[in-house]
Write a structure and sequence with these properties.
Length: about 270
DNA sequence: AGTGCGACCCGAACGC
DNA sequence: TGCGTTCGGGTCGCAC
């Protein structure tokens, strides 16, 4: 399940591989994945080239001449680079073939990922991009900002951390890890958090996301980056997917509960 | 406006 | 063994 660190890893990896290569052909095998007009999608991309790859939250933004290709990997989306002669696999849904005979293949077992081609001038007006909250590293991500946003939320803080309009890019793994590092019980209502707790979330978010990006993300389930680089952050996980294992700080058993339908892991002693 | 929930998917895990 | 059922998870859209 790619979150911000995984998306950043994919971005950095792909940037070394696909920029400024002419796109010879686009093959769409699962049309529902494309949110924009299908004919435009093919005609605009063919003959075009990727000039840069940016990121906003969990969205990857491929820059083309005059357009951006927005992609969201959701849970299982992956990009692979392959020789175009290799046979297509079952879950390779969108294939971009470059004129050096390599493919950029979008692979997604669950078919949850989406792609959207937009004109450059429309980027900031695109709903998905417009509503993204502060990036984990932004200087605008402050305790004051969080306190104000949280004050309107009676939901558990765990649920609120997943709200992309507040902090952009956190998913289930890092939400669990941030709350452990900040020593906050995931069930606590967001509106009840103190200034100090908001500050702890800012610091924990900075620290964890920086570390996760440095380590190439976290490999959970099927996630691998485009070059097959394995994320190493899983070795650093303190609570996520560690149900019944001892807390690395106090030895108490890590608990797994559902909050808002999402698996939540925490230490009942460290996060009272 | 905030909240809750089904829909989108399909492989893995589980039940019988 | 083999079949059917349940579950998960990010985001959107809709109902309240």
């Amino acid at each position: 399940m790619p979150e911000i660190a995984e998306v950043e890893t994919v971005r950095n990896t792909l940037k070394k591989q696909i920029l400024n290569k002419k796109i010879k052909k686009v093959n769409i095998r699962y049309a529902k994945m494309i949110e924009s007009d299908l004919k435009d999608f093919v005609s605009i991309l063919e003959g075009n080239e990727f000039l840069d790859i940016k990121r906003r939250g969990k969205w990857l933004i491929f820059e083309l001449h005059d357009h951006y290709l927005l992609t969201h990997l959701r849970m299982e989306g992956k990009f692979y680079l392959k020789n175009e002669e290799l046979s297509l696999e079952k879950h390779e849904h969108i294939i971009f073939t470059f004129d050096d005979n390599t493919d950029l293949r979008y692979h997604d077992t669950r078919k949850f990922g989406r792609m959207n081609l937009i004109k450059k001038e429309d980027l900031e007006n695109t709903e998905a991009i417009k509503k993204q909250g502060e990036e984990p590293f932004s200087k605008n991500l402050t305790a004051i900002y969080l306190k104000e946003k949280f004050s309107k939320k009676k939901l558990p803080i765990k649920t609120v951390l997943l709200d992309q309009t507040i902090i952009s890019g956190l998913g289930n793994i890092y939400a669990n890890e941030v709350l452990f590092a900040a020593k906050i019980n995931p069930l606590k209502k967001a509106c009840d958090l103190s200034n100090q707790e908001c500050q702890n979330i800012v610091l924990a978010t900075n620290e964890i996301i920086e570390s996760a990006i440095k380590m190439g993300g976290t490999t959970i389930k099927s996630y691998t980056s485009s070059l097959g680089v394995t994320g190493r952050f899983q070795q650093k996980l303190m609570v996520h997917k560690r149900e019944n294992e001892p807390c690395k700080v106090c030895n108490e058993k890590i608990v797994n509960i559902k909050i808002g339908g999402r698996s939540t892991y925490y230490c009942p002693f460290c996060q009272k």
